[in-house]
């Protein structure tokens, strides 16, 4: 990266906030996605909207790629600077500008972690509903840029349902403000939602106004073991058919149960074919009622064993089995590929059985856990990165998994995003006309194509 | 409109489904917006997606404007063919393709009325949550095109929160499918939400997949009278500060109370400064608990009188006062201008008092009712259309009302849309850079500018 350009950036943000040393750049060559890396030419750390605007104007003038980045916990290489250029780290913009209990909203800078926002809201008796598993490290800006999901998707929806307004900088440097402090606003195309999930390819988010909810009085969780995932899925269908939309409906397949039990020593029932975590939150009497109805439904659906935690602490202990699925699996091989597909809820068991069949056929190890309530699955492959042939087979297996999800009326990504990883499959999901339309939309925001090139809209 | 073109359309849809007689065209010159009318050159009634595609291809080739139209109940002239051309009536596409109780979703053609969808869902024990006041006549396609709101906005959100997927035809004739039967899907920019609220300027919606909820077991409504709207607003703030997010929080100002009482003879308390309707739905014990808490909060906030309806029938009777605000006001003059602004909830009373001050200053009659829970107000002006000077003063007053809403961190339209009416004010709300961006997005969909020209994106 040329020295003049680095100096010009240093003039904007101060010399301490531009990094060019190869050792530092290598940190920004990767995000949480395995097998994707490309060092940027430099990393810049702005701390105001105006600095972001000046950086983007400069980069636009010079045609330099800019990749906005929060915590770098992305799982589809959306924040890997695949064309080099500048990584724009938003980690200095960490101010919680305002939490209004009156209006049930928060205004935050993009670098605030989701967990910190949730904790600050909770201290005021409020809930920030989106809860992606990465919430402790991930930033609100990154979560908005990927429209992050989480464990509460069925009942609470995903990040997009909570974004009321955004301040964002266009690649050409103009600052726009979309939406605001309003529950109803239809003045103009819905740019708030268009930027949500745009993966840093249309604009750089510099502030967000998000909706909060009253904190639920009670939260309880239960666990049910079933002989098969089909039986667990049937129980899920029956829960919903009974008019219950629970806060939590998570599953682990047989392979996950064994691996998590090895890792945690929780004494899970390893002989079971599937484990279902079910939980609800809300007024105490409703939660208690729903938990006992769900317990009965699981039993009637043939559960081997059903336990409802008597309190929040024991509920958290049960959820630990789900939350540590990924670290438990990661121990089995030094390369862990955590994938993300989504199918209509009734097709969940069918999808998992197809995944198992594909894994067997390609002779790779895939265990699957995920969100049974909203049909979002995380097939996870563990392997030895030095076994090039196995890595190759894993890629082929995942390509087939994505195509299978599409054939089952599903999608190639439920909550992780497209990034560089899924871009080659986007046409199969959306059709070529729609991919072309996305490109035209991208150009409407970013005529020079400087913002996160090689990703969505490319 | 040239004869060849009409013949070509007749070849697509059949001669019975193209109308060119001046008497028929005059019906399609207007929607529910007063003072805006322009007859189209012809009206065409397709009945399949493929017909819509062929019509749009033909219109694109010839550069003829096409204005998609549902029931024509729009209130911002969004469906008035201000540049002439073709009105594309979606009223033959009225098939409810599917209601899935398993998946809690419905697939419908755009011409289905919202009330019919809601009734069919209810018959299966499900709720279609969006409930704009126009629901009996308005179509689902039109409601999606305007991102319609309604009385349940605070608790349930607006139409956009319920659209899972769309089939739509681009102005150039390509058919795209966005989203689907999935609660989580981040494959690509969020075109589902971008089309929702795009007012027929980006694509023509030919099918929608919408999310349903379990039907609430109980629904109750109460009414509280206050000496002033400030006192009613304070009660609303206290309800929310107590962690209650009720299904209904509607208000009528003093002028509306009198007019509605004259119209209905319900025996409302005309001496009150404001009437607040509050209600909730959900499990019976929660609703009963919330209703008694809201009753107490209203009393503590100084309510003159509070009544909670003991059952659904009496709840409906109370809501009738709110639902007939518009017809009651319409009796007072042959021209009724129903407007729509939105402000942050705590600024509601301030906004109404500004509206009153503006109405006095311009010597026009404005009464205001609306959604106290989400800050969405409907100042309504009644006047004599033959009094040109009064009409002129009303326009000036509303322009000032829109600007006042913007100054109070609000917006020029909460739920009715931009259409032709608000387009001149859009730049003041969004800023000129954002208006330019909307135009570039419009061109990405509609390079020839044939779809609903003179509206959003123009």
From TrEMBL, chains A, B:
<dbReference type="InterPro" id="IPR016171">
    <property type="entry name" value="Vanillyl_alc_oxidase_C-sub2"/>
</dbReference>
<dbReference type="InterPro" id="IPR004113">
    <property type="entry name" value="FAD-bd_oxidored_4_C"/>
</dbReference>
<dbReference type="InterPro" id="IPR006094">
    <property type="entry name" value="Oxid_FAD_bind_N"/>
</dbReference>
<dbReference type="Pfam" id="PF02913">
    <property type="entry name" value="FAD-oxidase_C"/>
</dbReference>
<dbReference type="Pfam" id="PF01565">
    <property type="entry name" value="FAD_binding_4"/>
</dbReference>
<keyword id="KW-0560">Oxidoreductase</keyword>
<dbReference type="InterPro" id="IPR036318">
    <property type="entry name" value="FAD-bd_PCMH-like_sf"/>
</dbReference>
<feature type="domain" description="FAD-binding PCMH-type">
    <location>
        <begin position="36"/>
        <end position="215"/>
    </location>
</feature>
<dbReference type="InterPro" id="IPR051914">
    <property type="entry name" value="FAD-linked_OxidoTrans_Type4"/>
</dbReference>
<keyword id="KW-0274">FAD</keyword>
<dbReference type="InterPro" id="IPR016169">
    <property type="entry name" value="FAD-bd_PCMH_sub2"/>
</dbReference>
<dbReference type="InterPro" id="IPR016166">
    <property type="entry name" value="FAD-bd_PCMH"/>
</dbReference>
<keyword id="KW-0285">Flavoprotein</keyword>
<dbReference type="InterPro" id="IPR016164">
    <property type="entry name" value="FAD-linked_Oxase-like_C"/>
</dbReference>
<protein>
    <submittedName>
        <fullName>Glycolate oxidase subunit GlcD</fullName>
    </submittedName>
</protein>
């Amino acid at each position: 990266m040329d020295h003049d350009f680095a100096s010009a950036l240093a003039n904007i943000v101060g010399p301490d906030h531009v990094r060019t040393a190869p050792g530092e750049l290598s940190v920004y060559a990767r995000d949480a996605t395995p097998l994707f890396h490309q060092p940027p030419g430099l990393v810049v750390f702005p701390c105001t909207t105006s600095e972001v605007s000046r950086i983007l104007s400069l980069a636009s003038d010079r045609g330099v790629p800019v990749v906005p980045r929060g915590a770098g916990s992305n799982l589809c290489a959306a924040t890997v600077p695949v064309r080099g250029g500048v990584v724009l780290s938003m980690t200095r913009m960490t101010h919680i500008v305002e939490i209004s209990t009156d209006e049930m909203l928060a205004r935050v800078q993009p670098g605030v972690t989701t967990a910190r926002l949730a904790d600050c809201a909770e201290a005021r008796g409020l809930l920030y509903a989106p809860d992606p598993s990465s919430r402790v490290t991930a930033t609100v800006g990154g979560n908005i840029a990927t429209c992050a999901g989480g464990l509460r998707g069925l009942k609470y929806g995903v990040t997009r349902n909570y974004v009321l307004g955004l301040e964002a900088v266009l690649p050409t440097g103009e600052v726009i403000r979309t939406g605001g402090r309003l529950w109803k606003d239809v003045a103009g195309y819905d740019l708030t939602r268009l930027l949500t999930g745009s993966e840093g390819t249309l604009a750089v988010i510099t502030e967000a106004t998000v909706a909060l909810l009253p904190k639920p009085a009670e939260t309880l969780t239960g666990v049910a073991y079933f002989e098969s995932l089909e039986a667990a899925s049937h129980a899920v269908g029956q829960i919903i058919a009974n008019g219950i939309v629970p806060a939590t409906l998570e599953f682990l397949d047989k392979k996950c149960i064994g691996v998590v039990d090895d890792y945690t020593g929780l004494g899970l029932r390893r002989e079971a074919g599937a484990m279902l975590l079910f939980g609800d939150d809300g007024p105490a009497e409703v939660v208690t009622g729903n938990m006992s109805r769900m317990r009965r439904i699981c039993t009637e659906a043939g559960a081997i064993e059903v336990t409802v935690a008597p309190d929040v602490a024991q509920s958290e202990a049960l959820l630990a089995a789900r939350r540590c699925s990924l670290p438990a699996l990661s121990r089995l091989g030094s390369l862990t590929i955590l994938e993300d597909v989504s199918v209509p809820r009734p097709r969940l068991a069918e999808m998992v059985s197809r995944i198992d069949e594909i894994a067997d056929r390609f002779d790779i190890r895939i265990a699957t856990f995920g969100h049974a309530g909203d049909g979002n699955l995380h097939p996870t492959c563990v392997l030895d990165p030095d076994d090039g042939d196995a890595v190759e087979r894993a890629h082929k297996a995942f390509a087939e998994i994505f195509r299978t999800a599409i054939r089952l009326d599903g999608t190639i990504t439920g909550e992780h995003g497209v990034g560089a990883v899924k871009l080659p499959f986007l046409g199969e999901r959306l059709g070529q006309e729609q991919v072309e339309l996305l490109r035209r939309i991208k150009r409407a925001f970013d005529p020079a194509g400087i913002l996160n090139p090689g990703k969505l809209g490319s």
